[in-house]
Design a protein that fits this description.
Layout (H helix, E strand, L loop, with lengths): L2 H11 L5 H13 L21 H14 L1 H5 L11 H15 L3
Helix pairs in contact: 1-2, 2-3, 3-5
Length: 101
């Protein structure tokens, strides 16, 4: 799927999704730069651990990728190492194109 196709499908689905799946889809749209200024989401406090740990990993990866510029300003190794950032970005790109579609 192309980026535009993923964005179109995610925009259609975001209103009917609930909880973590909605948060993931909103973050995916921000990551794919499809969200407009008023549509930007705020980072929510992590909820209680659930059986759906996969979606939590996706959400946390998106949050790290979206906060990459702020993380780069911190001391090296505080949150991620220099070799982890490209891997997180690649994983996030893959997930937003495959899982959000």
């Amino acid at each position: 799927m192309k980026k535009a196709d993923v964005i179109a499908l995610a925009n259609e689905q975001v209103e009917i999704l609930r909880d973590d799946y909605r948060e993931f889809t909103e973050l995916a749209l921000v990551y794919l730069s499809a969200a407009k200024g008023e549509d930007l989401v705020t980072f929510r406090k992590p909820g209680a651990p659930r059986k759906a740990m996969w979606i939590a990993k996706l959400i946390y990866s998106l949050k790290i990728a979206l906060s990459e510029s702020q993380i780069a300003e911190l001391q090296p190794g505080t949150i991620t190492n220099s070799f982890q950032s490209p891997k997180i970005r690649a994983f996030t790109t893959f997930v937003t194109h495959v899982y959000a579609a």
